[in-house]
Amino acid sequence: MTTQSFVIATHNPAKQREISQILEFYGARGIAYDQLTTRQEFPAEGKRSYEENATKKAQFISRLLPDQNVIADDSGLELKAFPQKFGIETARQLTPHFATKSDMNDGIIQLVNGHDRHFVMKTVIALARNGQVVQIAHGELSGTIATAQHGNEGSGFDRILIPNGLDHTLAEMDFASWVAYCHRSRAVKNSFRPNGGNIEMKIVENTNIANLSPLASAIYDKLAHNQQMLFLTWECEDDELTNQVAHFLNHFDAAIAHLKGKVEFMLPLTAFHLMAHRATSKWPTDEELCRSLAKIAANHTVYWRAGRFDFNVSAKPIIYGIMNITPDSFYDGGRYNTPEAMREHIRQMVAAGADVIEVNGQTTKPGGYKEVSPEEELARIVPGIKMLQKEFPNVAIAVDTYKLPVMEKVLAMGVDIINDVRAFDDQRKLLLLKNSRAGLVTMHSSRDREYGNLTVEMKHFFEHNLAKISEAGINLDRVIIDEGIGYLRLPMVSRTMQ
Predict the structure, then answer these.
(1) CA–CA distance from 344 to each of 122, 248, 341, 351, 395 (Å)?
(2) Residue 486: what pLDDT?
């Protein structure tokens, strides 16, 4: 069997190498155009479309090498927060301003800090023969910009691009996984296919319960909502694939129904990300499968939007560190009252993986506490906030306070999160938070009452509290709840055996 060859029309050595590696993965061969003819000056790129730019380059080289399959691409980064920037002109806008790719990545991170971090990377590949374009293929990757560079693999923006449904960058993936997600590899794969690509397999979520009995509907609803089970259908092209899928899903102890051309199955949401990762590793060339998995993940992804940060809490738990700068904390009072002690404590928490560090200058310990003035509280916490901002810029900063003047001051300093043990009980607090981007931690802390049914009464508390926050114009994706279990009273229960 003869290996299919493609001539790559680019002057970019990294792009030529990357496309060659992708072609090799798919069993083809890539050749740099200047190995077959003299180096050329390509037609000037336009600003209208990726297709136009890719077509110009492919046609130009194809006319010089009429018997070859010539491919050329055009790619761009599109940011949701800055729709007028980059895109088709990504390279032209960024390259003159940064000495290295690493500097460019840091520049993008700084640009989106405090803004929506969602991106789309687009690639269009034009395939030409005998001077005519015979195929236009598209590839896209959607996700979020990382808060720092991660990984050692890949090139370009790979160290800062986190695909939807994942918690790691392209540069942290093995090559097979990278190929499944990378925008350029998707475009290359689609250039082999009629009409730029076709469907092999996909997974869809089952949400139609119209034909179920009342009892079955109740069971379905309880499993879906209370136990967070997913009801999915994996559509396949043939019986062999269906058998492979059924065998694959058996490894996840999933409840499955093996049917003609599809497998229906039930899977806990907590297991979905692992299943999706292994599925894309097993079938890395199936773009539609990868796309459908990403779509389901996106439908069930929960973000906590807190100041400069969008935390994907579905993919990764938040590690939340506490620094009590108080002499009377019941846990660590007086331990971090000097700059040196604060710095060392922060370093230890960051080294342990802390995503958030919360600064507290007013204890609210169970059993009673002494209230300090807002001025005293600020005197305690402001040095810690400034230290975090200067020395640990990639860590979210939270402040634990129930005092409005303190909230006003620290929000003006740019902290990311306010934690209020009194659940934002003052309309002035809500107005202040409405006009910020900060995340909110709202806490249930009824210290002076006894509960008969804690679960029910806490549920009612948060329903009322969250409704009040929402009515104030604050999006609930900025809010997390703290049950405050250690702060409440329950009826005494005898431990005497009856």
Answers:
(1) 44, 47, 5, 10, 15
(2) 61
Tokens of 425: 């009980």
Q: pLDDT per residue over 59-70, tens digit each?
A: 999 999 988 999
Q: Where residue 442 falls among pLDDT bands split at 50, 70, 90?
A: very high
* Alpha helices (H) in 95-213, listed in sequence order: 101-112, 175-181, 183-191
Pairing of strands 479-482, 229-235: unpaired
pLDDT tens digits, 201-225: 889 988 666 577 888 888 888 888 7
Phi, psi of 370 (to 5 degrees): -95, 125
Is residue 74 annotated as a catalytic residue, yes or no?
Answer: yes
CA of 130: how far to CAs of 63, 193, 250, in Å?
Answer: 6, 19, 50
- pLDDT for residue 122: 92
Neighbours of 347 (CB within 10 A): 12
H helix or E strand, kind and range, residue 204:
strand 202-205
User: What's the CATH code of the domain at 355?
Assistant: 3.20.20.20
Q: Does any domain span residue 275?
A: yes
Query: φ and ψ at 34, to 5 degrees?
Result: -75, 5
**Helix-helix angle 287-299:183-191, to 10 degrees:** 140
CA distance readout (Å), 290 to 163, 168, 431: 11, 16, 42
Angle subtended by helix axes 183-191 and 13-25, to nearest 10: 60
Residues 232 and 308 in one domain: no
273 and 415 assigned to the same domain: no
CA distances from 363 to 43, 46, 360, 381 (A): 67, 61, 7, 12
Specify whether 175 is located in the same domain as 210. Answer: no
Taking the complete model, does pTM exceed 0.90, yes or no?
A: no
Residue 493 burial (10 A CB sphere; 0-12, 13-18, 19+): exposed
pLDDT of 258 reads 87
The Cβ of residue 306 has, within 10 Å, a number of other Cβ atoms equal to 27
- Same domain, yes or no: 341 and 236: no
User: What's the mean pLDDT in 24-46?
Assistant: 89
Instruction: Tell me the average pLDDT of the chain.
Output: 86
Tell me: do 117 and 228 sit in the same domain.
no
**Is 68 in contact with 7 (CB distance < 8 Å)?**
yes
DSSP per-residue string spanning 269-300: HHHHHHHHHHHHHHSTT-HHHHHHHHHHHHHT
The reply to whether 169 falls in a domain is yes
Structure tokens at 284: 């890395």
Q: How far apart are CA 369 and CA 342, in angstroms?
A: 23
Do 72 and 129 form a contact (C-beta atoms < 8 A)? no
Do 313 and 273 meet the contact criterion of CB atoms below 8 Å apart?
no
Q: Of 24-38, 250-264, 396-410, which one has max mean pLDDT?
A: 396-410
Q: Which of 34, 67, 73, 74 is catalytic?
A: 74
